[in-house]
C-alpha cells in the first residue's frame, strides 16, 4: 500500500483546494484579478501536462509545443472573424486541425532522435510562427482580436468568468486523469519502454514508431484545446503566443514542476507564473528595506532573480519541485554538496587567475 | 544581374557571420555535449561591450579587441560558475539552465546599459564602398566582415587540426576520461574551449553591431538560426557548420530578395505577395526539415560518437 500522507500528496491536495476556492475568494473580496490570472495558469498548466505526456513519459523533448497553442487559438480566432462563432464548430475543428498538424510534424520529426528531435520540432514551430506572421488578413504581426467568445447555443456561457474558470479547471483535471489512464495502460507502458530503450522494444516486436506518433498526436491535440481556451480567455490571438520562447516556457514549467510526474507540470506552471507575478513586488519590498527608496524599484529586474533560480533548480533539484517534495532529505544533502562544489569552483577560478 | 550579385554577397556575408556564431556553438556542442541556448546572450554581450569600449577609446578596432577579450572572460566565468556542473547531464537540463541564463543576461544588460538600444558607428575608413567589379560597388564594411570571417575560419581550422591544443580538443571530444587519464587538465581545456566559443560569438556580435542596433534580445533570433546551421551541418563538425552557414545565409538572403518574383511566375500577383514573405521566412526551416528527414544526422555527421 502506498502511503497517502506524503509531503507531495499534501501539497497537491492543498493546491487543488486553493484552485477550487479562488473564485469564492474573488467573489467575497471583489478582486477578480486572481480569477483572470489563475484561468491563464490553469490553461497553460493543461498545455504543460500535454507536453509532459510526450516529454516526461515518452522522452520526446518537443521544443515547438507552443505551435499547437497557436494552431488551436488561431482556428478560434479565424473562425470567429469569418463569422462562425459557434463553439460546436470551432472546438472540434480546432482539435482536428491541431491533431492533423501534430500528425504531420510528428511523422517527420520522430525519424530523428535526441538533440536533432529538439531542433526539428523547433523548426516546424518556427514555420508555423512565420505563417502566423504572414496572415495579413488576420492581423499578421499585430494579432487578431476576438469579439465573441465561442457560443454554445445558450447552453454554456463562456463570458461568465467564474463559469469559464471552472470549465478550464474541469478540463485540466480531465487532462490529468486522461494522462493517468494513458500512462498506466499498455499503451503508456509501451511509450515508457520506448523512452528507456527503443531498440529493445522494437526487438521484442513492438512497432514503437506508431505508438510514439499516436502519443505525439494526443499531446498536440490536448495542447490545441488549451490554445482554444487561451484564445477564449484573452479574446486575442497573435503570433507571439507561438514564439519559441513560449515553447521554452512550457518546457520550464514541466521541468520545474517535475518531469514524468502526474501533477508535476501543474505545480510547475503555478510556481512559474505565480513567481512572475509575485517576484517584482517581493523584490521591491526587500530592496526598499535594504537600500531605501532607491532599492524599491529593483522589482523591475525580477528576471535577474528568476533566471538563476531556474539554474539552481537544474543544478540541485533533479526531478523538479515534485522531486524535492518526494525526497526532502536527499534534497537538503544535495544542496549542501552543491554549495561546497560551487565554493570550490569559485576558489579554483581565483587560483587559476592568480597563476595567470 | 547586378542586384543578384549584390544579394549573393549579402548572403555570403550573413552566412559567414552565422558561421562565427555556429562555430562556437558546434564546438561546445560537439566536444562538451552541451546545448547552450545562452550562446546568443554572449553574442549580445559582445556587441554591447564593443559599443561601450569603442565609445570609451574612440577607436572601433581597439574597442572591438577589448570587447573580444571581455566576452572571452565572461564566457569562461559562466563556464566555471554554472555550466561546468551540467556536463554529462541530460540535454533537457542544459536547455532549462541556459534558458535561465538568457533571462539573467537580458535583465543584466537592461540594468547596466538601460532598455534603449545602442548604436555603434563605423569609422570613416570603413564607411565607404569598394568596387568589386567595374561599376559594382559594395560596402567596405560588409566586405571586411567576409574577410574577417574567412580568416577566422582558416585560423580555427589550423588550430583544431594542426596544433597540439587542437589535437587535445579533438581527443577530448572522442574520449574525455582517456585524455584526463593521460594527464591533461581536461577541465581547463573545456573552459578554454568554451571561452573560445564565447569569443567567437562576441566577434559575430560586434561585427554585426554597426549594421543593426545593439539591443536586448538581439541574440535570440539569430541563435535559432545558428542552431539550424549546426543541425544541418551535423553537430560537432566545423566543416559542416561552415558549409551549412554559407548555405543558410545564401538561401535566406536570396530567398527573401527573389522568392516573390519567382512565385509571380507561377501564381497570381496577389497570391504571390501574400505567400512570398511567409515562404521566404520559412525557407531555411524547410531546408532543415528536409535535410533531417533525408539525413537525420546532418550533412557532415561526425563519426564515432
Write the layout of secondary structure elements.
The complex is a heterodimer of chains A (356) and B (305).
Chain A: H1 7-29, H2 33-57, H3 66-81, H4 87-109, H5 114-134, E1 144-145, H6 161-183, H7 186-196, H8 198-204, H9 208-234, E2 236-237, H10 244-257, H11 264-291, H12 303-316, H13 320-326, H14 328-355
Antiparallel strand pairs in A: 1-2
Chain B: H1 2-32, H2 39-57, H3 60-81, H4 91-113, E1 129-133, E2 136-139, H5 140-162, H6 164-174, H7 176-181, H8 186-208, H9 218-233, H10 238-266, H11 269-294
Helix pairs in contact in B: 1-5, 1-8, 1-9, 1-10, 2-3, 2-4, 2-8, 2-9, 3-8, 5-6, 6-8, 9-10, 9-11, 10-11
Question: What does this entry look like structurally?
Answer:
The complex is a heterodimer of chains A (356) and B (305). With 356 residues, chain A is mainly α. Chain A has one domain (7-267): ABC transporter involved in vitamin B12 uptake, BtuC (Orthogonal Bundle). Chain A contains 14 helices and two strands, in the order H-H-H-H-H-E-H-H-H-H-E-H-H-H-H-H. Chain A has helices at residues 7-29, 33-57, 66-81, 87-109, 114-134, 161-183, 186-196, 198-204, 208-234, 244-257, 264-291, 303-316, 320-326, 328-355, and strands at residues 144-145, 236-237. Chain A has a two-stranded antiparallel ribbon with strand order 1-2. The radius of gyration of chain A is 22 Å and the shape is globular. Chain A starts with 6 loop residues before the first helix and ends with a helix. The mean pLDDT of chain A is 88. Chain B is mostly helical and 305 residues long. Chain B has one domain (2-123, 147-294). Chain B has a two-stranded antiparallel ribbon. Chain B starts with a helix and ends in an 11-residue tail after the last helix. The mean pLDDT of chain B is 85. Chains A and B meet through helix 5, helix 10, helix 12 and helix 14 of A and helix 3, helix 4, helix 9 and helix 11 of B.
